Amino acid sequence: MKITIIYDNTTRDRRLAADWGFACLVEAFDRKILFDTGANGSILINNMKYLEIRPEDITDIFISHDHWDHTGGLEAITGANQSTWFLPDTFQPTKNVSEMRIGKQPQEIHENIWSTGTLAGIEHSLVIKQKGQTVVVTGCSHPGVENILTAAGTVGKVTSLIGGLHGFDNFDALNGLDLVCPTHCTQHITEIRQRHADIYVEGGAGSFFDI
Description:
5 helices
């Protein structure tokens, strides 16, 4: 499994643009899943170019929630790609795309690849289970990190958490993880890094993880 951060508030590579928003590529089980699309289509496409990620190779588009900083690149990416969109069931209506709406319950979208289900009526997260590892990718964690971990825990014991954690401050909830990478809208990155230095990994566009 490989996860590459394409779009984030910060960057690890001077060739890449930093901008408010989030997107990453999840490669697992012969799928290439674009998780969210950032705020700006031009930045998304340019960052993908430098990371040698071709839009036409993406097999799925997973949108965590219907906020501009996660959906702004949709039009740009769908111009070169006809992937199925996996959307919260509260997402605004779409046109001329193949889509799957995700309800409240955890749902397997491909073998060993799950959605947590749309939690709190706003957001779902991606869960990948591979070789004893259960990895969760979040957009902003609006429903609460604890609720996301509980939903993902029905798939397998969560070992890694990557993505936006918003105002999350129940730092003990991260006990038992092997890896945490807080990105984008996370308000308490410094505290997470200090309290969980042994599992903390820096985010930013250009970061990648082989798990």
